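Before relying on records like the one below, remember that each one covers exactly one chain. Contacts with other chains, cofactors or solvent are not represented anywhere in the record.
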Amino acid sequence: MGIVELSKTFRFEAAHCLSRVPDTHKCRAMHGHSYHVEVTVRGPLDLEAGWYRDFADISCVVKPLVQQLDHHMLNDIEGLENPTAEMMAVWFWRRLEDDLPGLFEIDVRETESSRCRYRGEDPANWK
């Protein structure tokens, strides 16, 4: 049958600072965000079951990661020493890809108007 995409959004509060920006940049100082992370999986619709995957299966894999970040200083989390939205999306991807078959996209929102979408292309291979 057809291919479907399922998305589940998770929220958490966290602080960070961007130490690699110029001294005059406002994000160099510690500040916080109400983050939204949307995880999307993609795969075939099973007509017999009526779905591709249970949303609860996504939650079981993602929630432990969200709990690591919630109400923490992101710079103190291994792999997030430079916690831009882009690096957070890669951080989530690398921790989910083996345990969440069909992982298609990670969307990290710092604010209502600022977001990063990532689809698993390894930045080490970027030219």
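The chain has one domain: 3-120.
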